[in-house]
Amino acid sequence: MKKALITGIGGFVGSHLTSLLIKENIQVHGIKHPSHPAAQIESTVKITNCDTQDKKTLEKVLREGYDYIFHLAAFSSPSISFASPKETIENNLFGQLNLLQILSSLNSKSKILIVGSADEYGDVEKKYLPVSEEAPLAPQSPYAVSKVAQDMLGLQFFLHGGLNVVRVRPFNHIGPGQSRKFVVPAFASQIAALEKKGSGEIKVGNINTYRDFTDVRDIVKAYLLALDKGVMGEVYNIGSGRAYKIADILEKLISFSTAKIKIVKDKKLLRQADIKKIYCDYSKFKKQTGWVPKISIDKTLFDTIKFERARLK
Questions:
Q1: Domain total for the chain?
Q2: CATH number at residue 205
Q3: Which of 15, 181, 205, 246 has its CA 20 to 30 A from that of 30?
Q4: Is 102 found in the same domain as 124?
C-alpha cells in the first residue's frame, strides 16, 4: 500500500484530498497545526499536531517515508494577508523551507506537490488570457508574494536539492466545507441564514469581477494526477478554463433559495487589490495527465449552500 503525507490536513482541501486518497487505497498521515481545529477526518488517518516551523517534530514525521507528500499547509487569504504580511510570508515560505531541507537531507525519493496559486499572475493583461504557465508573474498581495516564493523554492530544490517536486498553480476552488472568509461560502452562509427569516439583505463588495472556479473534488483529483503523471520539476495551471462573473455566482446561489433577498453593496468589503478578470489555460496539464474538471458549477454551488444550511443547524 502506498503512503501519503498531507501537511495542512485539517483544512478545506486537506479533508477532501484525504477522502480521495482513502478511496484510492492510499495510507494517509496528516500534519495539522496545533492551534487549528481539524475538519472531519476519517478515523483511520494518523494525525500529528505540528507547526511546519517546528523542525524537530517535522523531521520525525518525515523520517517515516512516503510515496507522496502534498504540501497544503499555508496561510491562504489574500485579503487578510495585507493586515499580516510578515506572518503570511514567514508561515508560507519558512515552513516549506524546513520541509524541503529535511527531505533533501534524508535523500528522499518522495514525490512532492508544491501548491502555488493563480494569484501569482496578478491582474493579468487581456493579451495573456486565458493564462498559461508562461504568463509573467505579478503578485499583488503579500499572500501572492509568498506563493511565488513557494513556487520558486520548490523549483530550486528540484534543480539543486535532488527532490522530486511538481508545482501547481490552482485557480479558485470551491465546494462544501470551505471557510466563510472566501466569497462563495460567504454568500452561501448569508443566504442560509436569511432563509430562516424569509427575507433580508446580503452585503457584497465588488461583484463585477471574473474568476475561474473549479470544484475542490476535481482539484484534489488533479493533485494526485500531478504526482502520478506529472513531469518532475514542471509547473501546471489547474482550473476550469472558464471565467465566471461573481454577480452571476451570487444570483445562482440565490436561485436555490425561496427567501426574498436584496443585494446591498458594502464599501467595507472592497479589497485593497482586486483582479478584474482571470481564467486559466490548463491544456498543458490536460495533455500530460488527461485531467479535465467534471463537476458542474451548478452542482458545486448547490452542494455548498446545502453544506451551509447543515452547518447552521
A1: 2
A2: 3.90.25.10
A3: 181
A4: yes
Query: What is the residue-wise DSSP string for the chain?
Result: --EEEEETTTSHHHHHHHHHHHHTT-EEEEEE-TTSPPPP--TTSEEEE--TT-HHHHHHHHTT--SEEEE--S---HHHHTT-HHHHHIIIIIHHHHHHHHHHHTT---EEEEE--GGGG-S--GGGPSBPTTSPP---SHHHHHHHHHHHHHHHHHHSS--EEEEEEE--EE-TT--TTSHHHHHHHHHHHHHHHSEEEEEES----EE--EEHHHHHHHHHHHHHHSPTT-EEEES-S--EEHHHHHHHHHHT--SEEEEEE-GGG--SS--SB--B--HHHHHHH-----S-HHHHHHHHHHHHHHHH-
Question: Rounded CA gap, 213 and 239, in Å?
Answer: 7
pLDDT over 80 at 313, yes or no: yes
pLDDT tens-digit series, residues 262-278: 999 888 777 766 789 99
Residue 92 lies in a domain: yes
| pLDDT surpasses 80 at 49 | yes
Q: What is the pLDDT of residue 266?
A: 85
pTM of the entire predicted model: 0.96
Q: Would residue 175 be called left, alpha or beta, if left means φ above 0 and alpha means ψ between -120 and 50 degrees?
A: left
109/46 same-domain check: yes
Same domain, 139 and 191: no
The answer to whether residue 289 sits within a structural domain is no
Q: Are residues 134 and 227 in the same domain?
A: yes
Question: Same domain for 100 and 192?
Answer: no
Selection from 202, 187, 200 nearest residue 252 by Cα:
187
Cell reading at 262: 436584496
| Whether 94 and 221 share a structural domain | yes
